[in-house]
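Input sequence (393 aa), recorded before submission:
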Amino acid sequence: MPMTNILQRPQNKLKILIILLYYHPHSTGLTHYVKMLAEELVCRGHEVTVVASCHSRDLSLGETRLNGVRVVRLWAPIALSRGRIMPTYPWAINKLLREHDVANIHIPLLETALIAFLAGIAGVNIIPTHHGDLILPKNPINDMITRIMFAFYKYMAKRAPCIIGLSDDYADNSYYLLPFREKVRIIYPPMIIPEPDPVGVKRLREMWQRDGGPLIGYAGRFVQEKRPDLLIRSLDVVNGEYPNARIVFAGEYDISYEGTWQRHQDLVERYRSQLIFLGLVRDKQELANYYAACDVIVMPSDSDCFPLVQGEAMLCGTPVVMTDIAGGRVAVTITGMGKLAKPGNWRSIGETTLAVLADLDRYTKPRDYIRSIFSFEETVNRYESILYEYAKT
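Predicted structure, token format:
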């Protein structure tokens, strides 16, 4: 990926509207992605507005400022699976679209067709960023939601001049992206994390480690698609070599819309002495120390587009075990900093974890090398170039 010459950027600054369902302080890879992007675009002189749901009673409706970004939160009284119903959405989006030069929407998103329709009337191009196909647990209601969301997406995709994908691997295997593959432009996700603090890392290892056993990390929500249950089951394999191993979970685990935590309580209790649940780690320095304190980060997902966790862990010097799935396998494949396991197979996940633990030097790469592959500046340069290309004049 050649670096864009910063001196060649156009001098006019843009009014950019970024649309998504949840924004900070809601904590997922997608919200972190958008927050980093929005704030960097502001640092480059652009006017950036983020519009999202007011998903918590602790947040204020309407307009606020966060690190230079104008944030507009809309009334969202009704939860629908992972989504939100926002009664004032059409009027708010219509007004905001007319105030901006270009819109970047982050999907899956229920309102994609509505946004595309209103953007067409306002004469504003919409640039969607695709964070993963919608895959919900199988039941009649979720099946209906999936079909409706895909129909809305197709209406929008036909009208978008281009679509941003996170990797060619995922784009070539995505039921969302394949019908529009010729429109897809690839931009790696933005990845920023501080360097780990050696004193903090040592303190965490002393706190968590048991009799010198390895620390296996899992950073993410405890939800079905990420398959934390497979990682726990893999202890049957890991314990053959390291009976004192521990898994340290960083992320939300008791999530109401999923029920995954409740379904796997028997499994959690069976291995309770080897499991540590930290909950959500919001502070970036604490997160960096967490990654570095772990000997390996394991991501046993059934589906995952391009998890930020992988790049962040690698930047902190920790190799990754990832399942061999479209999109998810990219970071390990291109950096060599880790190893792939068979998806859905706890035994393979355990064996692959042992293989990495047995040869950590082989799977550890310098921070500068990882940063050269996942260049934050290049990511934002590419976004900026596309936004300039399709902004109204």
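Checked by second reader. Residues 140-159 form the longest helix (20 residues).
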